[in-house]
TrEMBL record:
The organism's place on the tree of life at top rank: Eukaryota
GO annotation, biological process: cellulose microfibril organization; plant-type cell wall cellulose biosynthetic process
Keyword Hydrolase: no
PANTHER family listed in its UniProt record: COBRA-LIKE PROTEIN, PROTEIN COBRA
Gene: LOC111291358
Transmembrane segments: none
Keywords for the protein's UniProt record, in alphabetical order: Glycoprotein, GPI-anchor, Lipoprotein, Membrane, Signal
Topology in membrane: Lipid-anchor; GPI-anchor
UniProt protein name: COBRA-like protein
Amino acid sequence: MGFAQSTKTSYISHYQCRKCFSFLEIKSMCRLVVLFLVMLPHAAAYDPLDPTGNITIKWDIVSWTADGYVAAVTMNNFQVYRSIRSPGWTLGWQWAKKEVIWSMVGAQTTEQGDCSKFKGNVPHCCKRNPIVVDLLPGVPYNQQFSNCCKGGVLSAWGQDPIGSVSAFQVSVGLAGTSNKTVKLPTNFTLLGPGPGYTCGPAKVVASTVYLTADRRRKTQALMTWNVTCTYSQFLASRNPSCCVSFSSFYNETITPCPTCACGCQNKKNCVMSDSKKAHKGGINTPRKDNAPMLQCTHHMCPIRVHWHVKLNYKDYWRVKIAITNFNYRMNYTQWTLVAQHPSLNAVTQVFSFDYKPLVPYEAINDTGMFYGMKYYNDLLMEAGPQGNVQSEVLLRKNKDTFTFKHGWAFPRKVYFNGDECLLPPPDTYPFLPNSAHVNPITILTMAFSVLLCMLTI
């Protein structure tokens, strides 16, 4: 009995210890989950529809000077559907030593800083943390550089590869005069035009190789470093900047944007569409802080995307897409709209927009980018009668998977200008009439009537 009791006690103690250990394991796992959830907004720069999208800033030292170097700085927007709109990009950094900018071509700093210690030749900028902006179109030729002077506007690479590049030249003094003595700038910042971009440290890479004009000779930069900047919608804004509404031919109900989809902080300063203020002069003048002047709506979003299932043919179905601008102070140039839907792998015709399939993962083709035709509808005007663009899309049916049930006809995700739009809750989508919930009282009534009829025969 003593041995059995001892064994039993040992087994219980082992079980209790194992139970405690399991509890400690679960507690540790919970901590890791909480830590992951806390860190998630900061890791949101990864975009599953554009996994390699970024803005790369490349510095090429092209010549040495008496006290420094001359560098060509190139910004490449490798984001497929996210552009930098007016008033353009703003680039900043911090010098590693006491460098100054003697001159710039194709761009300028916003401040000169204190250059009082220099006699005679005064630098362009003496600040330790200069802020650089692009020049406006139409500047004199002697101030221009290749791919400069667009007012800071950078097109999305997937929409306009040529317009997705911006560049300027900078002459740096009081710096190193060799690869070993040059110190790389630090703390790069990029506004495009507002917050949202996070830049990594500068990294020395293989020197850029150039081809001469006759393409018969190659030259090489003396030194090259890259800075990579990625975008996070969480850093750009606490609230979404667009919303989506749905409707269909098989249901009279229109599913609107969710209430306060983009936050209602502008509710007190909005403008009614039928008020005199909406037609007052100067209301469309943009402000330096890009503060919006929104039309009063229940969703309070600058942009609404409406997806309407219009027609159902034997082998095709037709969708109408309408984009409406509710911001009186903003014209959207070179806008982009991205939608994720299973039927986008069978697009037959897009009538009034340009279209490009996006295939970030080769096995999945369910995402596409819509954008305006150049000189036709690539400009989305401010709020008002002209503040909308629309098109229709013809999609081929897949007879094995095609259905209108359970919200299948509506997109899974929608992005406008690279920002994800807020969709309505799935249970509010327009449903098919024959999929409506059947009233049990009606069934009982019909059964009772049939029984009564049988008994009276």
